[in-house]
Design brief:
alpha+beta; Calcium-transporting ATPase, cytoplasmic transduction domain A; nine-stranded antiparallel beta sheet; 41 helices; disordered C terminus; translocase; ATP-binding; metal-binding; ATPase_P-typ_TM_dom_sf
Length: 1234
């Protein structure tokens, strides 16, 4: 008793301490990790805040709008989380937001729901049962105080009294056992449903589409437009009315276009994720099904799936019946998927949507058909609703994407800050200049502020996105759809591209090469036509072990299953009137097309499929339970990965040369499936079969043989891989298929060259006798294959046919297909015996062991690995993340379901799908081959180079105008209203819009565009152009001052005066402003041409007809202004009368300066910057700056210096070094010098 009191006291004490916490971490260790601080109102801080708002004339309100977290610092004070009115949240990426804490005082039905689930985490392992009960009840706050919660990014977090922190509101997808899902959720009362609806919210995914007015306010308050508004006010005060008016009009037009595009994107996304309102039958607490609107569904509801199908609006686990589902919206894969009921197990197996995805109907997927016979319904328990569903997670990933850590954008911000520093220096110069000359205060302030509007171009951010916009449009024309435009630039820096195999590198469809039966512990001769097999278990396995179904009168399902079933020439019949012959729940019947071959039977030969265990990547197999009509017992048939099936079979039934034969097929690129079966105990009844676990069915199997499929490469695959290789982009295969099959495909598509070696990495977890270890061996093992040194062609060993038995499988021995060893599914496998690059081949099992016991080797594995086989979807994602950790920019291309996580994790994920767009990946290609990879990379490089070019052009435009204005300030003058308009609007705007429309180059070259704006070549490029522009403008300025006609003031040459009454505006009609304006006009055109360099990333400039035409027109116009001035035009621009006051030689000299600048600008950028001697300088400067090389480059250097890995050796975790193995391990390469 005392112990219980002590335990309770200590528990309450720890609980009390936890309530005083002001900080907690939510979703720890995930991408959604949040740091949370509690804040409450502070009266004195609020008063001080509003005083500061008044003193700053509202500027502080703007700053707080841009930085919401400042409201917590300026108006509120920290407090314990349990009393917080506001939660200050910071993501793991440093982004901060404020969420209002709400209190739900109305009753909710969470306590009963939570009693079926485990708490998210345990306090400690020694909690008493009372503690655990208290812990479970702590999910909700005490009723009298109400439930405290806040919503962030469509996720609800509730207050947990015991832990003293907020925790994510969890549903039935977490911690609920399969048994509970079957037994405890038979229906809810209206009161319970109303409570849960308040707790979880409606079952909707409403994408908020703001009104144009709300969008307008939000857009106008953007720092970019605030800067524009301030600039327009400044220009208006300075009497630049025309210029200010035009910029105001352009800004308004830009805002309108931006609002339209933002709203269009939101409406598109809303239409993509929303579904039409519908009703569905929901069970009440009296177990009566009534119609309810789907937005009223809550976790725990039992729903009936309509017989004619529906679009799922929630995640629900099937508890009865079977569904055929199309999941293309979520996965991009349009192959129908069969969903079967979740097993009702007595043990404590916990339900997981990922583990039990074959039993889960996901939101957004379309149920095509339902199967349950008799009067029963197809039922499912709702486990997740709204944004908590699988579809909701994908939509949230689109709405709140992970920040793209792209150096280009970081450098752009830094460069703008640098421009601000330059502007401050210009302001200081102007201030000193005007003070020395005794100008009035108003003019001095205006001139200093005007410097900021010149050196920091407000259109810079928009100009940087032009290339991406054009690239997205071109991608769409190539049938590549992008839902995340910023990722297009990432395509330009990719240096590793990962590919799924089946359906991506190889054809979706398979060709049946043959069946290799096993009998009496031996493999028989291959059979090319399995329809000639007698009625044997291997034939029945092929007939029944699949997930095929009939949709709209056509046989549909997995391509492998279709090939297998069609090969035996049987017929599949969906149950109808004759279903009573088996049972009221018999789903499918298969039978031979020609029943005559089985004449003489008492009953027609038919096999009913009673139960199906669908294929899953985790189990690597599928199985069915069948009963042959007229038989008294049932049978189980199983097919799947050969290694997995062999491990489930009785050892005495597996041929002794199983691994040798399997290797001989897989190394040639064949896809091999193993078949097995076992009789079911006759005592097991029909109803028991419906509840039996697959583990009890899939053991002690009898091995039947191998199904050998040809999976040809797609015609485009080899060419694309070779293109990537020439471009120095690594290609990596990430597949769920066998490792030897993957190696063969890798060789034949060119990932592994014919003269390169493949080392298989075999990693073993520790056991009782051995510690964890890694063994390295050549893939072409001498015991299995040999190398003919004359032809270097792989020879597959064949056992003497006399050593094989012929089982009585065929009706007629003459039909026996005595076949030679399998012909290669691809080209001949050529293996060189000389020393060349080593490629690592790693299985999913080995990858898991290395991750756990040899994490320090993962960077080397990722750098050297080319083949990753038998990888689960989670491991594919982990591999992508590991590659990213060592500074690779990673692309991923896959065809659907098993690749979704990897596609989202990659910098650029491309899903091959017939759908125009899906939420499975940032890019979706409706052309089902990997040519889209090269197109995306070419467009990415073009977009990136265009962004660099636009950025550099805008920077040079600012610097040229900055230099012009500073020179003119020295002479107490400036450019006129229309001169500013001509340079900013006519020249710069048109060029910035059109220069990005140059298409991508037709080749993917080895050279890669720089990924950083502050790279040495870019900096030298910008600095050199600035120096040139400064030198030429200054030269023109001094040359002008030496002319006999020169006079600073217009009053000395004409009778026209352009001063304002208050004298605040300087003279603009001067020789200085006229000459500087004309020369600078040519400079803008020159740098635009210079930064539009074509190959090797873009097509030549002449292909961009609109841009080149604009340049020519502007060049001609500027030439006419200088050489053939027309007096009305001169007056319009407030220019001096060139024609009347100067001779032609002066104008020709200025024109010569302009042409000289153009030539020098092009020579410096196109020739000097890319010269070999400057590259040495870049490396030297990089060395002086001690720039860190990419991590993968360091790993590559280490691998080369140590010649890692060494064959025939074992790596142990303790010493982390290679040790000489025992005689069990041999050097499989006789020519190796290790």
């Amino acid at each position: 008793m005392n112990n219980q009191i002590d335990s309770s006291s200590s528990f309450e004490l720890s609980s009390h301490k936890s309530l005083l916490r002001t900080h907690c971490i939510l979703n720890k260790g995930t991408d959604e990790e949040l740091s949370c601080w509690g804040y409450t109102d502070s009266t004195w801080k609020k008063c001080l805040y509003w005083l500061l708002v008044f003193l700053s004339l509202g500027t502080l309100l703007l700053i707080v709008h841009w930085k919401p977290e400042l409201t917590c610092y300026l108006q509120r004070k920290k407090c314990p989380l349990y009393k917080a009115k506001y939660a200050l949240l910071m993501t793991r990426f440093g982004i901060m937001n404020v969420a209002k804490v709400c209190i739900l005082t109305e009753p909710v039905d969470g306590e009963r729901l939570m009693s079926y689930t485990d708490p998210p985490t345990s306090v400690n392992t020694t909690d008493t049962s009372d503690d655990r009960a208290r812990l479970s009840s702590s999910w909700l706050s005490e009723p009298e105080n109400g439930m405290r919660y806040f919503d962030y990014q469509h996720t609800r977090y509730i207050w947990d009294n015991i832990r003293g922190s907020f925790t994510k509101l969890e549903d039935l997808s977490i911690g609920t056992t399969c048994y509970v899902l079957h037994e405890k959720f038979k229906g809810l009362s209206d009161h319970q449903r109303a409570g849960r609806l308040r707790l979880y919210g409606p079952n909707t995914m409403d994408i908020e589409v703001l009104s144009y007015w709300s969008l307008f306010i939000g857009e106008v308050l953007n720092p970019f437009y605030i800067f524009q508004i301030a600039s327009i006010i400044l220009w208006a005060i300075d009497y630049y009315y025309y210029y200010a008016g035009c910029i105001f009009f352009i800004s308004a037009l830009s805002i309108g276009i931006s609002l339209r595009e933002i709203r269009r994107q939101r409406v598109t996304l809303k239409n993509m994720v929303s579904t039409a309102e519908s009703t569905i039958k929901v069970s009440t607490d009296e177990q009566v099904f009534v119609e309810k609107h789907d937005h009223e569904l809550v976790p725990g509801d039992l729903i009936a799936i309509p017989a004619n199908g529906c679009v799922m609006t929630c995640d629900a686990v099937l508890t009865a019946g079977t569904c055929i589902v199309n999941e293309s919206m979520l996965t991009g894969e349009s192959v129908p998927v069969t969903k079967t009921p979740l097993l009702q197990l007595e043990d404590e197996e916990t339900y997981s949507p990922e583990t039990h995805k074959r039993h889960t109907l996901f939101s957004g997927t379309r149920v095509v058909q339902t199967r349950y016979y008799g009067q029963a319904k197809v039922t499912a328990v709702v486990v997740r609703t709204g944004f908590n569903t699988a579809k909701g997670e994908l939509v949230r990933a689109i709405l709140f994407p992970k920040p793209l850590d792209f150096a280009f954008y970081r450098d752009a911000v830094r460069f703008i800050l640098f421009l601000a520093v330059v502007a401050s220096m210009g302001m200081i110069y102007s201030l000193v200049n005007y003070i020395i000359k005794g100008e009035n205060v108003q003019l001095t302030i205006l001139r200093c502020l005007d410097i900021i509007t010149i050196i920091v171009p407000p259109a810079l951010p928009a100009a940087m996105t032009v290339g991406t916009v054009y690239a997205q449009s071109r991608l769409k024309k190539s049938k590549i759809f992008c839902i995340s435009p910023p990722r297009i630039n990432f395509c330009g820096t990719i240096n590793v591209f990962c590919f799924d195999k089946t359906g991506t590198l190889t054809e979706d469809g398979l060709d049946l090469w043959g069946v290799v039966p096993a009998h009496n512990h031996r493999f028989q001769n291959p059979v090319s036509d399995p329809s000639t097999l007698s009625r044997s278990p291997i034939l029945l396995c092929m007939a029944a072990c699949h997930s095929l179904t009939i949709i709209d009168g056509e046989l549909s399902g997995d391509p492998l299953d279709l090939i297998m079933f069609n090969a035996i020439k049987w017929y599949l019949e969906e149950p109808g009137a004759d279903a009573h012959k088996y049972d009221t729940i018999m789903p499918t019947v298969v039978k031979p097309c020609s029943s005559e071959i089985f004449l003489g039977e008492e009953h027609p030969f038919e096999v009913g499929i009673i139960r199906q265990f669908p294929f899953s990547s985790a189990s690597q197999r599928m199985s069915v339970i069948t009963r042959t009509m007229g038989e008294s017992h049932m049978e189980s048939y199983c097919k799947g990965a050969p290694e997995k099936i062999a491990s489930l079979c009785k050892p005495e039934t597996v041929p002794h040369d199983f691994h040798t034969v399997l290797h001989s097929y897989s190394i040639q690129g064949f896809r091999v499936i193993a078949l097995a079966y076992r009789p079911i105990d006759p005592k097991i009844t029909w109803h028991q079969v419906q509840r039996i676990s697959r583990d009890k069915v899939e053991n002690d199997l009898i091995f039947l043989g191998l199904l050998v499929m040809q999976n040809q490469l797609k015609p485009q695959t080899t060419a694309v891989i070779q293109t990537l290789k020439r471009a120095n982009v690594r290609s990596v295969m990430v597949t769920g298929d066998m490792i030897q099959t993957a190696i063969s495909v890798g060789r034949n598509c060119g990932m592994v060259a014919k003269n390169e070696r493949v080392i298989v990495v075999n990693a073993y977890a520790p056991d009782k006798e051995h510690s964890a270890r890694i063994e390295w061996e050549e893939s072409e093992h001498p015991d299995v294959t040999a190398v003919d040194e004359n032809t270097a062609k792989l020879v597959v060993p064949v056992e003497d046919d006399s050593d094989r038995e012929t089982a009585p499988l065929l009706e007629d021995d003459d039909n026996l297909c005595s076949r030679s060893p399998p012909k290669e599914a691809y080209n001949s496998v050529n293996v060189s015996v000389t020393q060349h690059r080593k490629h690592l081949a790693v299985s999913g099992k080995s990858f898991h062991v290395i991750s756990d016991y040899f994490p320090e080797l993962l960077p080397k594995i990722c750098v050297q690995g080319t083949i990753f086989a038998r990888m689960s979807p989670e491991q594919k994602c982990q591999l992508i993340e590991q590659l990213q950790k060592i500074d690779y920019t990673v692309g991923m291309c896959g065809d659907g379901a098993n690749d979704c996580e990897a596609l989202k994790a990659a910098h650029a994920g491309i899903s091959l799908s017939e759908a125009e767009a899906s939420v499975a990946a940032p890019f979706t290609s409706s052309v089902n081959n990997i040519e889209c990879v090269v197109i995306a990379m070419r467009e990415g490089r073009a977009a990136l180079v265009t962004s660099f070019g636009c950025f550099k052009y805008m920077a040079l435009y600012s610097f040229i105008q900055f230099i012009s204005v500073l020179i003119l300030y020295t002479s107490r003058t400036n450019l006129s209203d229309f001169e500013f308009l001509y340079t900013d609007l006519i020249i710069t705007t048109s060029i910035a819009i059109l220069m990005g429309n140059t298409a991508a180059y037709h080749k993917l070259v080895k050279k890669t565009p720089p990924g950083s704006l502050v790279s040495v070549p870019n900096l030298i490029s910008i600095i050199s152009q600035v120096v040139l522009s400064f030198a030429f403008q200054l030269g023109a300025y001094f040359y002008l001052h030496q002319q006999s006609f020169y006079s600073h003031s217009i009053n000395n040459t004409t009778n026209v005066t352009d001063t304002h009454p208050n004298g605040s505006r300087p003279e603009v009609r001067t020789w200085d402003s006229t000459v500087i304006f004309l020369l600078s006009s040519f400079m803008y055109l020159a740098v635009a041409f210079t930064f539009s360099k074509g190959p090797p990333f873009r097509k030549p400039i002449y292909t961009n007809v609109m841009f080149l035409s604009t340049l020519v027109v502007l060049f001609v116009l500027s030439t006419l202004l200088l050489l053939c001035p027309w007096e009305p035009i001169l007056n319009f621009f407030d220019m001096m009368p060139l024609y009347a006051s100067t001779d032609f030689s002066f104008r020709l000299a200025i024109y010569g300066m302009a042409l000289a600048f153009m030539v020098m600008s092009v020579v410096v950028e196109w020739i000097v910057i890319d010269s070999s001697w400057l590259r040495c300088l870049y490396r030297f400067i990089g060395h002086l700056m001690k720039s860190q090389p990419s991590k993968y480059k360091v790993v590559c250097k280490e691998i080369k210096s140590t010649d890692w890995p060494r064959l025939g050796q074992v790596t142990l975790p303790s010493s982390n070094q290679d040790l000489r193995p025992s005689e069990t391990y041999v050097d499989v390469n006789p020519h190796s010098d290790h």
